[in-house]
Design a protein that fits this description.
CATH topology of the largest domain: Tetracycline Repressor, domain 2
Number of helices: 11
Mean pLDDT: 89
Number of strands: 0
Largest sheet: none
Helix content: 55-70%
Order of helices and strands: HHHHHHHHHHH
Radius of gyration: 19 Å
Oligomer: single chain
Shape: elongated
Strand content: under 5%
Low-confidence stretches: none
CATH architecture of the largest domain: Orthogonal Bundle
Distance between the termini: 53 Å
């Protein structure tokens, strides 16, 4: 076990290992017995740290949602043009995912296994987050920064389709760091929305 994991509380260690298991095996196929085996403990002692498999999924999903929201709130406070806000929102989103790619993959792919009312609450948080990006785009259209001919929903869903695949292909050991990756993605995504070309 690495020093970083060893310094976490036992419950945090369980959640971190569970994220690896859910990512590799899928939430539905993973069992508490699998998790206990991965941690090298008896299944009975695992239940002293965590009540259920879904408790772990809830923790992963809602903690990540809070991180995304916090990042966007910082961007929304900035007194900058909408294109700069959108750019900073994209970079912030990438940096939150890059902090824990395993948890990010679970957040993106396994949230559908949440039971009610947690699934509804999670989806409402996600819709709110997406709509706040849409508001930034609408602000840019109003100020003439972004093309008014672009469908707002298409713009935002294209943006998130691009961002949310990152846990699947990004290699944290690659030569490109999250900040540089965020810059490159922001260049591609934001420049395509701008009303006037910056080339020349």
């Amino acid at each position: 076990m690495s020093d970083a994991i060893a310094n976490l509380s036992r419950k945090e260690q369980v959640i971190r290992k569970a994220a690896e298991l859910f990512k590799d095996k899928g939430y539905a196929a993973a069992s508490m017995r699998d998790l206990a085996q991965l941690l090298g403990i008896e299944a009975a002692s695992l239940y002293s740290h965590i009540k259920s498999k879904e408790e772990i999924l809830r923790s992963l999903c809602f903690d990540m949602a809070a991180e995304f929201r916090k990042s966007l709130e910082e961007v929304e406070k900035q007194n900058v043009p909408a294109s700069e806000k959108l750019r900073n929102g994209i970079i912030g989103h990438i940096q939150v995912m890059a902090k824990d790619l395993t948890a990010s993959a679970v957040f993106m792919n396994e949230h559908r296994h949440l039971s009610e009312p947690y699934l509804r609450d999670f989806l409402l948080l996600r819709i709110n987050y997406i709509n706040r990006f849409k508001t930034i785009f609408e602000e840019g259209v109003r100020t003439g920064e972004f093309k008014s001919t672009i469908d707002k929903k298409l713009a935002v869903m294209t943006l998130f389709s691009s961002l949310n695949w990152m846990p699947m292909w990004y290699d944290p050991d690659s030569s490109i760091d999250p900040q540089a990756l965020g810059d490159q993605l922001a260049d591609m995504l934001v420049n395509g929305l701008k009303a006037t070309s910056t080339a020349g």
